[in-house]
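pipeline stage [seq->struct] | target=Phosphohistidine phosphatase SixA | organism=Aggregatibacter aphrophilus | residues=155
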Amino acid sequence: MRLFVMRHGEAELMANSDKERHLNANGKEQSLMQGTWLKSTALSFDKVLVSPYARALETFVQINSVYDQTLSDKLDIWDAITPYGDSGIVGDYLSVLAEDGLQNVLLISHLPLVGDIVKELCGRNPASFYPATIVEIHLDDERGEVKEIKYLNKF
């Protein structure tokens, strides 16, 4: 299975709660650019797992617009992938999806969880998860292997 682990785009600094932080203008642009790259790399997704936090959902909206809204029926908003979710639970679920034959999965979440997921699946995390960073992992029976890291801005 090809798994694309993505950190949401750049978000505003202040909001009533962390869950309510929205993407800023740059974050929307980053998400669109990464959506374009994703579409050139993975023409379709079997499932898209997204955190229920505003900035993650808005990142999905931008990517879905690049895919002409075809990802809407693939969307699964999952409370387990908020910033301090359990990477072991996420890894177990992703293993089930792989066993079920899913080929391409996109996961949109937050720091520190995105790094923890990569480490859980691959034994290490070679990525610095700047906003909108995507790590492509190929999962097999044993351990995942990082195939590509797609950065936009590193600052």
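stage status: PASS
auto-comment: The helical segments are 25-41, 54-66, 87-99, 113-122. The beta strands are 2-7, 47-50, 75-77, 104-109, 134-138, 145-150.
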